Amino acid sequence: MPQKYRVIAYIDGYNLYYGIRGEAWQRLLWLDLNRLAKSLLRDSQDLLVTKYFTTRISSPEAKRKRQSDYLEALETHCGVSLKMFFGHYQSEPWKCAHCNKVVPVSHEKKTDVNIAVEVMTDAFRDAFDTALLISADSDLVPVVLAVRRLFPTKSIVVAFPPARSSVELKNEANACIAIGRAKLAGSQLPETVRKPDGRILQRPAKWSSAPSTSFGEKLMGALDAAPIKAR
Asked: What pLDDT does residue 148 have?
């Protein structure tokens, strides 16, 4: 049996989250990230690990709890095949142009840096043949260029979240695809996940509707996920 090409997936959590939200597909947020990454591979590829980059939120409480339950469910269900990396929020003043009121606005920090560091570290360790980058953040173009320059035998494949794309990433990656609805619908966690201590984690009520898996949606999702560039 021929040896399969090694793949590591790097997921920009908030880019994926807001892409799904941008399509009003909140009921598809209960994602099994390993399963999603595997659904994007070819038969000749083998997923070694999924690396998930996000930031914990502290408020509002309902949103904090949804995220906390989701992260716990992911950790429990995926085990060692999923690794999480956390950034932080930085508050900056924002002034309204109409009323001149100044309010604090939080911005996520460190995610793109954390992704770049992990991709480069794994490349130098020869940990992958292909890096699967799930993001449309053009700030990641430098690490794509660096890997392709320093490791010409390795590949970078970019998977764009729903409602997201980047011409810069598309131009510099070896290949890119768009994640369609069917890929998300087919990559959901179980409705309930039992932790080792017996506690039950379940899909939040706000994400509770069962995703549609009609033939038409599967067909459209398959078309959405077809390669849109390769070289």
From this structure: 97
